[in-house]
Structures are given as C-alpha cells and as structure tokens.
Amino acid sequence: MNINLIAVGKLKDSWQREACGEYLKRLSAFAKVTVYETDAAALPQEPSPAEIEKALLRESSEILKYARGVKAALCIEGKLLDSEKLAQKLENLAIGGASDISFIIGSSFGLSESLKSQCELKISMSPMTFPHGLARVMLLEQLYRAFSIINNRKYHK
Predict the structure, then answer these.
(1) Which residue among 75, 98, 104, 157 is least packed, with the fewest CB closer than 10 Å?
(2) Is position 40 within any domain?
(3) Cα–Cα distance measured from residue 90 to residue 110, given in angstroms and rounded to the nearest whole number
(4) Enclosing domain of residue 89
C-alpha cells in the first residue's frame, strides 16, 4: 500500500521531525509512505471569514496536486476511530483494491469544505485540538500501530 501524508506547513520543532522520522522508518516495513508539505496561505493577523475561505481554497488546490487514491481528511467533525478500527479500515481498503490512500492535515484554519466533500473518509483524532506538527506525529504513530495490528506484531497491546 502507498500512503501519502499531505500536510499544510512544515515541521518547525526538531523533536517533531525526529519522531516523524522514526515512525516513517518503522512504517517502511509495511507500506511506502510519502510526505508532502505544502505552504500555508498567507493571512493577516485577524483574517475575515472570506479571507480564511479564500486561503483554504488556495491550500486545497495545492493539496489536491498530491492526493492519490482514497482521500482521508483529518478534521474535527470526522469519525473517531480507535486503533483497531483504523487497522480494520486500512485492511478493508487494501482488500477492496485500494493501493493508495492520502491522509490530509490542513492548516491552523483546517480544510476547505469543498476539499472535505471530495474525501471518501473524514477522520477525527480527538475532540481536542492539537498543533499540526503533533497531529502529524500522532497520525504516523497510529498508522504504524494499525499496520502492527494487521500484521500481528507485538507493538499494539
């Protein structure tokens, strides 16, 4: 399976880059994972709703350049999945013939409604809000955990 992780913005903190690197290394035993980072649209200090929507649409067009196969938006209104359900979802997608899945992490203002409507999956990591860099670490860890479950590895307890 090919996993595309598309994130708006770059990781700023070294610990986030190191953690992502570790999980990418672990995931390489199970899937080909490619990370795409797009630039966040520039906005004024206190943007209007119209300015935010315009920025999200600009970001969406960049995101879609890299999205392949099944698109999964990480968004607060998405479905909460525990680790076993995520593993089951990935396994079912593979059995159903999906060879590519793109997980999408938006900017601090999220993702445009038009982009979310194009996604086959909407996943919420939690009702809590997390920094985008931490969300990326958490997603990679959960993908590694899911593949460990699928492959009966001891990582998941």
Answers:
(1) 157
(2) yes
(3) 24
(4) 2-150
